[in-house]
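SEQUENCE-TO-STRUCTURE ENTRY
===========================

Subject: a protein chain together with a token-level encoding of how that chain folds.

Sequence line: the amino acid chain in single-letter code, read from start to end.

Question of interest: how does this chain fold, as expressed in backbone structure tokens?
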Amino acid sequence: MVNSMNEFYKKKVSLPRDTRNAPDIRAAIRSYVTQRLLNVADTCLQHDEDPFRKEFGLIHRRYANFLLVVSEALQDADYFTKSVITWIEEDFNNASTGPQREAAGIVGAELIKIVEIYQQ
């Protein structure tokens, strides 16, 4: 699994209860998208005057859309979720702005936690 993601973000992980208690990884991803990513995106995108929040919200919306494809359309949600984590880690390592790094750090850490829960 991804080891180079910043430990700072792993310590900040706090998943919605429905995500932690979902019956499987597919349901956990759906819950995470609707209860966390889209809520963050919607809240941040209400602040046009704040460039950090606007970009942070747009990135969360992009991750949400991508993860919905993983949870709804693909057969092996576990495998593709791990692939998404790898891509988000690349976003984290190559971020050119603060919002890019922050969004990739926290979303990547939360997805790692989701995968850990459902590998047990």
About this structure: Residues 20-119 form one domain. The chain has a mean pLDDT of 90. The longest helix spans residues 51-73. The two ends are 14 Å apart (CA to CA).
